[in-house]
Request: fold
Amino acid sequence: MGTSLGTPTASAIVFFVLIVALTLAVTWWAARRTRSTREFYAAGRSVSAFQNGLALAGDYMSAASFLGIAGLVALRGYDGMIYATGWLVGWPALMFLIAEPVRNLGKFTFADVVAFRLRQVPVRIAAAFGGILTVLFYTIAQMVGAGNLITLLFGIPYAWAVTGVGAVMLAYVLFGGMIATTWVQIIKAVLLLSGVTLLTGLVLGEFDWSVTRVYTSVAERYGQGALEPGGLVTDPIDAVSLGIALMLGLLGLPHILMRFYTVPDARAARASVLYATGFIGYFYLIIPIVGFGASALVGRELIAQTDPGGNMAAPLVAELLGGTPFLGFIAAVAFATILAVVAGLTLAGASALSHDIFVHVVRRGQATEQEQVRVARIATVVFGAFAVLLGIVFEGQNVAFMVGLAFAIACSANFPPLLLSICWRRFNTAGAVSAIATGATLSVLLIVLSPTVWVELLGAAEPLFPLRNPAIVSMPAAFLAGAIGSWATSEPEAEAKFDDEKLRTYLGVGAE
Amino acid sequence: MIRLMDTTTRQRLLDSSDFRRLVAGRWRVSLALTALLFVLYYGYILLIALNQSVVTATLAGTVPLGIPLGAGVIVGAWVLTAIYVIWANRRYDPEVARLRRLEE
Reply:
């Protein structure tokens, strides 16, 4: 089969230009509505539950989910499906444990919640550190992925691709803030969900609309083993540890938590999680069909030959079934997917720098609206430029472990202080700082010593830490450090303010 | 914007059995659903890790049980989320509204 992958076809360029033009038009419209901090960080809290549900889905479903999981299923069969379930199960946990309290207690960032009744300076520094570290590793993985994908899809040189993504994403966030970011994420979610639905329909059409026939055909070609668990889940402890990181890491992702401030109240935040879980669940239910379809129709050999990671499985099957125009559409959708995720990440990184560090640490909470918006925009440029630079520095590096690292830090450094500050009266500043420091240090250290980095990247013979995913150790350690830090010190002011916090958490009294 | 309560009203509300029941009930429901979610997901992962024969047993010819199980985890997770929303909209929100009306 001949493929036009890697060459910019007319249809790819048309869809690509249409998406960029549409999102920049939205940004222009949003820029005229973005004057205050409430608008820049939180879209004026005027996003509806349904819109936020779509935007959360757009913020979360990365190119790694779309192209990566389809590729994993295509090349490794059932293992890809196990992985897909892990990406969904954090959403119910987010809802049950922290979504509404986070909405009621915070203003713009999750550090607002952690620092609600604690000493601002140390807690803001620690929480912003955990948040920025999470967002940074996540961004590096996204930028390197973006550069590789765009090179594969359109044949553009890597550095140009990374710079291009950085420039468009900066335009959204810098001028349109959260309003533009929200709409870019909504557009992307609609495009991605409809594109993958169409692709699934085309695949099923080849098999008389029977999912069973897709599986049968894969089993005929690659053996029954393709439909059974392979190497992903062998060590139960490592598998559970990965599950913990994927599930509870979501509860510490700054760019996701930040979206709850865009809706008017806790009730809307709750409804938006249900919508998001529905959209994301639907996506992960149908994406394996695309992967298995690619296996059966395109063949693993050609998929692996085009890209050893399997990322081109979905585009290849799109081209086979829908021709060059459909490939162009799917490629443009993948591009939109990357843009929406990096825009959300940049806004989260910038808000930690400006709202948490500049306003609450440097200025001790005393800064005018105008100054805050100006600093937020400067922080956006700083973070965006840094993202592009790191994307270029890490060209050709294996950065897959960085997504795992981002989730490990999120669930070990961000989630424990968040949960403890919501439910434990005795929790205090020393507890928060120790939890964050322990969680961040341990997750980074243990990943470096793990088989993934110590053996596969650094070439040592034996790993110093046996697990690939540190969460099962680093998260409980962070909770323990939070408890010890709190017990070892006493902070009557923090305990006294817990009553205010309770009224705000459960009744929404005083919520912004 | 909500007006903040004065100190005595606030303390009366915090000490009331209704408010305590609301908070306890909220965590009871949340933790019960979280426990079900853990059983659903980690049960699935551990089943794959420890007892592969269940996952590879086939249904109707070729499709191994693992495929509907994986899909079931996704659907089940969504159903748990929906149960929480139904509970919160029908039980929690009216109680919050009632408590706030009483005290403001």
